[in-house]
Fold 2-C-methyl-D-erythritol 2,4-cyclodiphosphate synthase.
Amino acid sequence: MRIGQGFDVHAFGEGDFVVLGGVRVPHHRGVVAHSDGDVVIHALCDAIFGALALGDIGRHFPPSDERWRGADSRRFLRHAALLMSHHNYALGNADVTVIGESPKVGPHAEAMRAILAEDLSCDVGRISIKATTTEKLGFAGRGEGIAAQACVLLERA
Ligand SMILES: Nc1ccn([C@@H]2O[C@H](COP(=O)(O)O)[C@@H](O)[C@H]2O)c(=O)n1
Ligand SMILES: C[C@@]1(CO)OP(=O)(O)OP(=O)(O)OC[C@H]1O
């Protein structure tokens, strides 16, 4: 078994939606990012790369590479899933927490779980999505951005 954890932050900027776990969620602000800025998937990718000791998302998808400008982060997750299977591991479970005052994640959590399970080729029961505010404290509390942290357990395939 292998364990991994990941964390990602994006600042809010221009726009009227954010992408979280592959779901386009309406919001009064967008995010500043090279890709689509999906903090859920970026944290999850880093957790998987970490469990495999394969570096981080920036090593696999450098922010200096124009190919990833505006990219759908699901591409990154499917790549992480491929590496997992190449190393003879399968996802045991993943637990993700979104940290921010808004948008509210609860109404979109099931759609996110379904997308993540599809890209990771696993049962949806292995994917958990949670959310918390920071009680108005810090950058997330001031509504300056959004964060996510993820933990994964990988099992031998
Ligand atoms: N972006 C968020 C933040 C929170 N939630 C849900 O609200 C509950 C209460 O949050 P507290 O920070 O006040 O504990 C939390 O447990 C989530 O169910 C959310 O959906 N989206
Ligand atoms: C995802 C990548 C892709 O170029 O860029 P960003 O969308 O800015 O996201 P970040 O979480 O900063 O991770 C770095 C990059 O790998």
About this structure: The domain at 2-156 is CATH 3.30.1330.50 (60s Ribosomal Protein L30; Chain: A;). The first strand starts at residue 2 and ends at 13.
